[in-house]
Predict the structure.
Amino acid sequence: MRRGPSQYTPQSRRAVGSGITRVFGETSSPGDGVIYTTDSLDRETKDSYWLTVYASDHGVVPHYAAIEVYVQVEDVNDNAPLTSEPAYRPAVPENSPRDVPVIQIQAQDPDSPPPAAGALTYRVVSGNPQNFFTINPRT
């Protein structure tokens, strides 16, 4: 027979490495079993955590159970797309016919892991009052 209240304590799983106890803290009151964050999580830095939680009683001979908890960090759109260059300076010959490729912009979205990184859209927003240039929104 067990006596005394149960207490839940998160422990870092060895395969994860150090530092996890800085991200997830102990419960707010003994016995409630709530795991909460103690620091801001960033999906681009680490997208998941494995926690091992011990539930133990306070009997004369304590008993405990180990519970594995997998925490998936959901992403929010908190990063702007990144281009391979800060500015591009292509050249186009005078009197070029219509539909001559000028340049292909390379960009990626840090919030979208590959292969979803191609989910960007493109548009020319200034410097084109006579509509001499166009861009395919998906390429």
User: Anything to note?
Assistant: The helical segments are 20-23. The chain is about 5% helix and 25% strand. Residues 1-19 have pLDDT under 50 and may be disordered. The longest strand covers residues 48-56.
